[in-house]
Amino acid sequence: MITPSLEKMLERVDNRYSLVVTAAKRAREIIAQSSASDEDRATRAVSIALEEIISGDIFPLQQPSNNKLKS
To answer: Where are the domains of the chain?
Structure first.
């Protein structure tokens, strides 16, 4: 796999934190669905998750902001 550029990934998400959280959640899903007992499955799962983010197959869900000031 060719390592995707961070700039390309950040075009799909708002910030690095969202990118990491989204990739980690998806990687956990991939590992849970995997039947392989390979040691490298976590690394492959993260790579697959990042590829899915770049291709637009998955994206982070944005929570509405409740940062309204009370008057």
So the answer is: 6-55
Take residue 54 and report the two structure tokens written for it.
Answer: 């770049």
Digits of tens for pLDDT over the chain (71 positions)? Answer: 556 788 888 888 888 998 999 999 999 999 988 876 666 787 888 889 999 998 889 878 765 555 555 54
- Contact at 8 Å (CB) between 27 and 48? yes
Residue 18 to residue 1: CA distance in whole angstroms: 22
**Whole-structure pTM value:** 0.73
> How many residues does the structure list for the chain?
71
User: Tokens in use for 21?
Assistant: 């959280």
